[in-house]
């Protein structure tokens, strides 16, 4: 995967935008450009040792009525693969490695599996297409 000949600053901002777009609300702290590392040869940006905002994760899971809650969470590394030479034609990829979650049981043990299935199906319907995302990314990075 080759990188389009854009400046490193623009590539860094695009990687951060992609990470913030999909994962930002679940991260304890906003990502800083200095945290991102770039692997120009492989078209990859990555960040390591990221803490999760367990309140946001629990809030996102609350409608599932799970019998547990997350009390601590971290991610070993997050990699973003961006096909710079074909950004409007190929998909970007986000890879999470080393996801660690510590959970504890809730007081209530009622689990509603039908709402879990409905929620998952609704999430799939609301996903952004690659073209829509590329347009959002370009608007954010070049503003």
From TrEMBL:
<keyword id="KW-0445">Lipid transport</keyword>
<protein>
    <recommendedName>
        <fullName>Autophagy-related protein 2</fullName>
    </recommendedName>
</protein>
<keyword id="KW-0072">Autophagy</keyword>
<keyword id="KW-0813">Transport</keyword>
<keyword id="KW-0472">Membrane</keyword>
<keyword id="KW-0256">Endoplasmic reticulum</keyword>
<dbReference type="InterPro" id="IPR026849">
    <property type="entry name" value="ATG2"/>
</dbReference>
<comment type="similarity">
    <text>Belongs to the ATG2 family.</text>
</comment>
<dbReference type="Pfam" id="PF13329">
    <property type="entry name" value="ATG2_CAD"/>
</dbReference>
């Amino acid at each position: 995967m080759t990188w389009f000949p854009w400046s490193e600053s623009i590539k860094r901002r695009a990687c951060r935008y992609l990470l913030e777009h999909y994962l930002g609300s679940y991260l304890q702290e906003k990502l800083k450009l200095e945290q991102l590392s770039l692997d120009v040869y492989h078209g990859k940006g990555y960040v390591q040792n990221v803490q999760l905002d367990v309140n946001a994760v629990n809030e996102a899971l609350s409608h599932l009525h799970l019998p547990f809650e997350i009390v601590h969470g971290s991610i070993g590394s997050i990699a973003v693969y961006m096909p710079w030479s074909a950004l409007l034609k190929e998909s970007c990829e986000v890879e999470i490695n080393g996801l660690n979650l510590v959970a504890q049981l809730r007081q209530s043990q009622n689990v509603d599996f039908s709402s879990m299935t409905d929620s998952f199906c609704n999430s799939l319907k609301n996903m952004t297409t690659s073209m829509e995302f590329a347009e959002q990314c370009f608007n954010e990075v070049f503003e």
